[in-house]
Specification:
The chain has helices at 10-14, 22-34, 53-69, 106-121, 137-140, 157-165, 181-190, 230-242, 265-277, 316-333, and strands at 41-46, 74-79, 127-130, 146-149, 170-173, 195-199, 205-209, 217-220, 249-252, 283-289. The chain has 334 residues and is α/β, with parallel strands linked by helices. Strand 8 (217-220), helix 8 (230-242) and strand 9 (249-252) form a beta-alpha-beta unit. Helix 6 (157-165) packs across helix 7 and helix 9 (265-277) packs parallel to helix 10 (316-333). The protein is globular and about 55 Å long. 47% of the residues are buried. Residues 1-21 are annotated as: Disordered.
Length: 334
């Protein structure tokens, strides 16, 4: 058995299968949508966290078919999250714990996770990813077209530095409490150049120099109270303007905006669709936690592959009408 405490270098992992040529194009398209040069709506949809790559690929293929149907109005991105942030403890995702049992075989997780991302990219979909551990970012970032810094890490200086270096648009989520100022400051910080330690392709620690990420933006994910309504969106846009930042937001229909109840996501989407149809041009994107089956399951025994083991998700049959609803709203916005 190889020493599983020794991780492969990024070069060893990324030097196998060729990188999909579409990644750069996807990044440019998403940037254009966020900047409102492209009238379409960004929709990031997929499971809370991938625990079964084969089932997640089944979902990705279905989403790719839907994305093609609604391509005139939506830019659909697969939520391909392989790390799961935790407030205290719990399963931390496929990359750090691929066997779902706490053994922490990270080397296997890196290879298995990257293989999934390559297979998912082969569907033609852009990939979304939340960067939880800055070290692990070097193994997957070249495949990601939209990234996120989560509510629990948005105040972290290493994550802000990482976002300033990453070559794709990065969404900064508001804090778990719902406060916006930390996320607004994170956007400002990510837009600046930084010098910080990182991991080179050969695995050595190195000094990274970032130019700043002009495509960092705000994600409204709710908090103690939801913040997807028109008044909350307007308040967020005012905060961005006051900070000298572009007034644009992506709104997460799950998490604090749904009270972590997947059954409430359709009502959140309906409200956002009404705002968009009414001309809310600054709402550049929407996020949906969606998977093959409704709900979630405890992580015990042999988990069902089609059902989330983390946050509850909307099933596929309930997701498709939401995509149609958002496409119609975007068409009406013009």
């Amino acid at each position: 058995m190889p020493d599983q405490d020794t991780l492969p270098t990024p070069a060893e992992v990324t030097g196998g299968r060729p990188l999909p040529e579409a990644v750069g194009r996807h990044r440019a398209t998403i940037d254009a949508v966020l900047a409102r040069r492209d009238r379409r709506l960004l929709v990031v949809a997929g499971p809370c966290s991938v625990h079964d790559p084969e089932a997640a690929l089944d979902y990705a293929r279905r989403l790719a078919d839907a994305a093609e149907r609604y391509a005139d109005d939506l830019v659909v991105v697969l939520r391909a999250y392989l790390e799961k942030p935790r407030t205290v403890a719990g399963w931390t995702g496929l990359l750090p714990d691929p066997t779902l049992d706490g053994k922490g075989d990270i080397a296997t997780g890196i290879r298995r996770g990257r293989s999934f991302l390559l297979d998912a990219a082969a569907t033609g979909l852009p990939l979304a990813y939340e960067f939880v551990d800055p070290v692990l970012a070097h193994y997957v970032a070249d495949l990601v077209s939209w990234g996120a810094v989560g509510a629990r890490t948005v105040a972290s200086q290493p994550h802000r530095h990482l976002a300033s270096w990453l070559p794709m648009p990065i969404g900064m989520k508001n804090c778990v409490s719902g406060r916006l100022d930390t996320a607004v400051q994170a956007i400002q910080a990510a837009g600046l150049p930084h010098t910080f330690p990182g991991v080179a392709a050969d695995g050595r620690l190195t000094t990274l120099h970032s130019a700043g990420n002009p495509a960092a933006h705000l994600v409204l994910r709710g908090g103690v109270a939801p913040n997807y309504d028109a008044a909350s969106v307007a308040a967020a846009l005012s905060a961005l303007r006051a900070a000298g930042l572009p007034p644009r937001v992506v709104v997460d229909a799950a998490h604090g905006n749904s009270g972590k109840d997947h059954n409430r996501q359709p009502a959140v989407i309906a409200d956002l669709a009404a705002q968009i149809a009414g001309g809310a041009n600054a709402v550049a994107g929407v996020m949906i936690e969606s998977y093959l089956s409704d709900g979630n399951q405890p992580l015990a025994g042999e988990p069902r592959p089609e059902l989330s083991v983390t946050d509850p998700c909307l099933g596929w049959r309930r997701t498709v009408p939401l995509l149609e609803q958002l496409a119609l709203a975007t068409r009406r916005r013009g």
